[in-house]
Every structure is written in C-alpha cells, then in structure tokens.
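does this look right to u?? calcium ion version
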Amino acid sequence: MNRLLKAACTVTGSVFLMSLIVPLNALLPMTSANAQDAGRSPIADIVEAWRASPHADRSSEAFTHWNEDGEIPGSCATCHSSIGAEDYLNGPMSTPGVIDHPVPLGTTVGCVVCHQNSAETLASVPFPSGVAVDSLGDGAVCAVCHQGRASSDRVNTATLDIEDDAVSADLGFINIHYAAAAASLMGGEARGGYQYEGKTYKGKFTHVPNLATCTDCHNPHTLEVAQESCSSCHQNISQFSDIRMSPIDFDGDGDTTEGIANPIAALHERLDVAIRAYAAEVAGTAIVYYSGSFPYFFTDSDGDGSASGDEAIYPNRYQTWTPRLLRAAYNYQAIAKDKAIYTHNPHYALQLLYDSLENLSEQVDVDMSGLVRP
Ligand SMILES: [Ca+2]
Ligand SMILES: [Ca+2]
Ligand SMILES: [Ca+2]
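got this back:
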C-alpha cells in the first residue's frame, strides 16, 4: 500500500466504521501531501469517484433491503455491508460468504472493505462450490462478493437420488444470486454454473495478461471499464458487447462478426423456449420466468408464455421441479444475472447454454440446428 493510501485509510477506515458521522471530504485535505497546491487531492478524486459509484449508493435495494427488519442477517451481511465484509475477511471464512451474526443497517461497500490489511493481502477466496481460488490478484476482494451464492455442487446435492424427470416436492429453485462475475470469470474452476456430468468446461477466462483480473478492466472506485483500454485490440466497437474474436458460428446464423454477446443471447432465448416446452410437456405445469421477482420462476397459470403481475408473486412460485428442469433453470438464471458474462467468460456461458439445451432435448423437441459447442 502506498503512503498516500495508508494515510487515507487510517482516516476513512475509522470514519466508515462510525457510519459516516463525519463528512469524509472535510477530513481528506489533511491526509494528502499535495492537497494545498493541487486544489484537489488525488484522494478527493477517488472519494468522489467512489461516491458516485454503485458501491456507495445508499438508496440502492442492495443496501436498503433489510431496513424494515432493523438489521442485516449474517447470511447476507458479508456482501451487503462494510461491517459484514470486514468481519468476514477477518474471520475464518469457513462458510463462503457467510458470517455467524447480524450487523447494523446503514453501510455500503466502503473504503475499509478493500483497504484493510486482510483484504489487501487476501490470496485465496473460497467460492460456494468449496473451491478456493488463488489467481485473482488485486481482484480477490471483488470475488468475495461477486461470487454468487450457489454452484453445480449445490444443485447436485439437492437432486441426489431423484430421477431426472421425476417431479419432487423436495425441490425448489436454486438461485446463483446477482452479478456473480467472479464465478463467471473462473468458469469450470469455480463451478458457478451447472456443469453436466461427462462434459468438460472452460476454466478461467484468461484473456490477455494485462486484462485478466477484475481491477485490470474495472476501475476499483468508479467500477467502470474504459472502452479505450479495449480498442487497441478490438477495433471498431461502439459498445463492449460488439467485441468478437471467435471464428466459430456458435448460433448457426451464418454471421461470425456479430459481438460474442449475440450468440449468447440467442442460445439464452432458445433455452427459455426449451424450458417452457419441457415444463409443460414433462413436468406437467407451465412455467414462466420473470427476472424482477424472487424466486424468478413462476407457474404460468394462463399458459400465455409471459408473466403477468399476478403470476410473478411468491405464492405462485413454480413448484413442479424435476432435477432436469432445475439444472436448466439454474443455468438460465446464471446467464441472466451476469449481464456481462459475454466478457467475463463467453465460452463458458455458451457451454452452459448448449449443454442445458442438449440435455432438455433428450425429452422434448429442442431446436439444436446449427448450434456449435465451444
Ligand atoms: Ca452467429
Ligand atoms: Ca446471431
Ligand atoms: Ca402468463
């Protein structure tokens, strides 16, 4: 840690622990050697960048969800508060993402989360599969929270000893959770997606040496990715999702120049169709997905293929799960909830989608025409 940062953290760390009682900016000029001559210190710029970022958005659902409960439970606090993250990082990390006590409301992802010693020296991060990953560099702390909450292993445990196509009341939807970018990035190594038996999966998306970890691509404070850092190699892109290197036509439409995000979206759409066909024809109850409502898969009572307001409610959650349906639905959600999986690990995403489609095609008509597995 550089000297500047050390000074900043001594101050900001304690401020954040006291839940921002003192406005941070008032303290900052004192912490920076060149504050007087530059007018603005580098740290003031960092604070401003962080403040405008989602990590500091106090009004976000991610930090206010528990307001009515009065505290954040230990199963959520690691990733949804500075205090919980600190306790986790300084504890045994024996259950991935979980601490054994609730924490107070009111913090976000503050400076202290990433700049305490246990975060800066964090070498190995346990994932929900139980696998510990040690190749994340400066991005290790990011992976603590962006690792999701489930894995292949949990789906396998839940479906153990149940026939692939048997409806079981013991099954419920298993949710990877939001923005599990680190699980995507690590691919088959972390087993964040549902990996079918007998298949091999792409591991970490190693990309190029200087752009291989979270903070190589993301500014750790704004959280943004600068498109200029891509355009030297990926020319003529107007958005990240235009990036294309793979020469194979994965979605079989004859176009190999479309951004790699395009075939991922195309297979994802086909998976939605296949899941609905299987649910109706094999599980015996129509299903519908709605991304904005927990637990995401509902009974499509009127069978029209879309989720109306009175369908997308918890009491109407889908309850006719078979192991085969659960595996495919798990992967559907894993792709849906990492909006940038096309850059975090595009080929892993395509493999998960392809295998889910192929597996459903053992029972119902699935359009596999032209599809190529990476
Ligand atoms: Ca194509
Ligand atoms: Ca296409
Ligand atoms: Ca409907």
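Residues 1-38 have pLDDT under 50 and may be disordered. idk if thats expected tbh
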